[in-house]
Design goal:
Elements lengths: L36 H16 L4 H8 L5 H15 L5 E3 L5 E3 L1 H9 L11 H14 L6 E3 L11 E3 L6 H14 L23 E5 L28 E5 L2 E3 L8
Antiparallel strand pairs: 1-2, 3-4, 5-6, 6-7
Helix pairs in contact: 3-4, 5-6
């Protein structure tokens, strides 16, 4: 039986959400504070496998490559509903322009909340979610706030009336449209990772709009590995040519 889970580089506090760790030096992380979506998703996945029992290699492989996006499961349906409720299907972008976002509503509604390379909707949600969480205060995002007594399931329930939703949608539609990218473009068509020798190292890569320029990258390619920089940004975890689970760090 699994007794310790994984904190996904987060605080040691939730190495096992059923038995949170306390009493350690703060250098090892905070206690009773909101954790990342990556941590929440990992704890949920591993807990589900542990409760099932009889864990097999196939179970682990299935979890590893399920490509589930926890943030998508948490907020995509409400985001799509909020989008559909916008008067006239339009929202105001950051530059003040009125943008028709009606097509984005349908893409978010159809998205299956995974991040496979062929997935349609993950790229749109990625760009939207990053904007929303960067411009809207955490307290304004969710109807159910964070609780240290329920750290894996809180905060939750996206507030469809959150002031930043319309703007984030409009800015995202503008961004993708200006780059000539369809709102339902396959995720893998706008990001790539090429590792010499079949590297299985996982990298979190953010794509710049301008070809040949680089934004923040994490990790260092092993000797001989090369990167292909695309003309459109996306963020997910990549493994030897396969887009694996993207677990966004976000307030909600």
């Amino acid at each position: 039986m699994l007794t310790d889970f994984a904190n996904s580089k987060d605080s040691a506090w939730l190495a096992n959400a059923d038995r949170p760790l306390t009493g350690y030096e703060r250098i090892w992380g905070n206690v009773a504070t909101q954790c990342s979506m990556r941590t929440r998703g990992a704890v949920e996945d591993v807990a589900a496998m542990a409760s099932k029992g009889g864990l097999t290699v196939a179970d682990l492989q299935g979890q590893q490559f399920a490509n589930r996006v926890p943030a998508g499961g948490l907020a995509a349906a409400d985001a799509a509903a909020a989008c559909a409720a916008l008067p006239g299907g339009a929202a105001t972008a950051g530059d003040g322009a009125a943008v028709d976002v009606s097509a984005a509503c349908a893409v978010l509604a159809r998205w299956d909340r995974t991040a496979d390379g062929s997935n349609r909707g993950a790229l749109l949600f990625d760009r939207f979610w990053r904007r929303l969480t960067a411009t809207t205060a955490a307290k304004d995002l969710c109807l159910v706030p964070f609780s240290a007594d329920d750290p894996v399931r809180t905060p939750r329930t996206l507030d469809r009336a959150a002031p930043g939703i319309g703007r984030a949608l409009a800015d995202t539609v503008q961004e993708l449209t200006a780059a000539g990218i369809a709102l339902d473009a396959p995720l893998g068509a706008h990001q790539s990772w090429s590792g010499a020798g079949g590297s299985s190292r996982w990298e979190a890569v953010r794509r710049p709009w301008a070809s040949g320029t680089r934004s923040r990258r994490r990790g260092t390619p092993r000797p001989g590995a090369t990167r292909r920089w695309c003309t459109a940004p996306a963020a997910s975890r990549l493994s030897a040519g396969t887009a694996a689970a993207a677990r966004w760090r976000a307030p909600c």
